[in-house]
Amino acid sequence: MKKIALVGCGRISKRHIEAIHQIQNLEITLVCDTNEQKAVETAQILGCEYVTDYRELNGIDIVSVLTPSGNHPVHASEIAEKTEVPVIICEKPLSLTVREAEEMFTRIDRTGKRLLPVYQNRYNPLVAYTKKLIDSGKLGKVYQFICDVLWNRDDDYFSIDWHGTKTLDGGVLYTQASHYVDMVHFFFGEVVESKGIGGNLRELAVYDSVSSVMRFENGTIGTINATVNTYQKNYCTEFTLIAEKGIIRLSGTNLNTISHWNVQDMVKPEMDFTIDHVYGKGHDQMYKYVVEEKWNMFPSREDVLSGIRLMERLSY
Predict the structure, then answer these.
(1) pLDDT value of residue 244
(2) Which pLDDT belongs to residue 275?
(3) Hey, where are the domains in the chain?
(4) Number of neighbours of residue 282 by Cβ within 10 angstroms
(5) How confident is the model at residue 246, as a pLDDT?
(6) What is residue 316's predicted lDDT score, i.e. its pLDDT?
(7) Which residues pair with 246 in a beta bridge?
(8) In this structure, which topology does domain 121-315 adopt according to CATH?
(9) Where are the beta strands (DSSP E) in the chain?
């Protein structure tokens, strides 16, 4: 049985707790938060111990860093340097700048520990299937994509102290759409040219809306449009792929539905699935890979740095 600790008992910790409970041979034995009330409440629910300082993580095999985004580089690096935990999982984004991400990788490398970025949408069955289809060559040359992440985050969401701040949040591409930035890198590789226009239309310190266009080394061009300003609730998440031998559109919550399929000599696969919350089920698969030590299923350093480079370029 592997023992895992959660550092950060905020909003996303509930999804990680759900996912871990689905995995055999993995048990939450410790939680940590600088807010002692949060730590106590979470520990009582889980029936485990708590600390308020991550330097006190002892007897742990894995730690998940679930703190505000801008704190990820410092927290993950210090856990690697000041504790014996060998495997460090870190929620997206790893950092808000390439400089901090590179420093983070360097510091953790020096300790001999393993850093695993959380980009759970890679394990979405339709995303994984699309990646295999692109790589198989059955679509021929991929010309273009359109990715829309049109969501709602209300004023209550931005009343949480770090949300909407430049130092800890980073804006819509980092906090909401970073999975889709990662997805296009997963599909197409390195971006060689990009341009974006952003707006802080709700007078936040960061962009709440971004429209961007990019070109990849393989010639594919595409757009990502992201906002948190849709009326009352999330409007849509869509990804359209235009290729030499077909057109595919994925839609629904976290791309769980094939809403259009026209591919040469291929019948639409019966792969639509239902999910019961906005995060999807990818965290479950991610923790399964952790227990199985399938490290190759996690994003490469190059993918992570390229994604952060793009988000930084478009958001600052």
Answers:
(1) 98
(2) 79
(3) 2-117, 121-315
(4) 23
(5) 98
(6) 56
(7) 243, 263
(8) Dihydrodipicolinate Reductase; domain 2 (3.30.360)
(9) 2-7, 26-32, 49-51, 62-65, 87-90, 114-117, 142-150, 191-199, 209-216, 221-227, 236-243, 246-251, 257-263
pLDDT digits (tens, 9 = 90+) for 169-202: 999 999 999 999 999 999 999 999 999 999 999 9
Query: Could you give the CA distance from residue 316 to residue 314 in angstroms, rounded to a whole number?
Result: 6
Distance CA 111, CA 81 (A): 6
Helix axes 301-315, 178-188, angle to 10 degrees: 130
pLDDT of residue 280: 79
Burial class (CB in 10 A: 0-12, 13-18, 19+), 232: exposed
The pTM assigned to this predicted structure is 0.94
For residue range 256-279, list pLDDT tens digits in order. Answer: 999 999 999 999 999 998 877 777
Q: How far apart are CA 197 and CA 178, in angstroms?
A: 16
Distance from C-alpha of 282 to C-alpha of 118, rounded to nearest angstrom? 10
For the 2-117 domain, the top CATH level (class) is alpha beta
- The residues near 147 (Cβ < 8 Å, ≥ 6 apart) are 180, 183, 184, 222, 223, 224, 225, 238, 239, 240
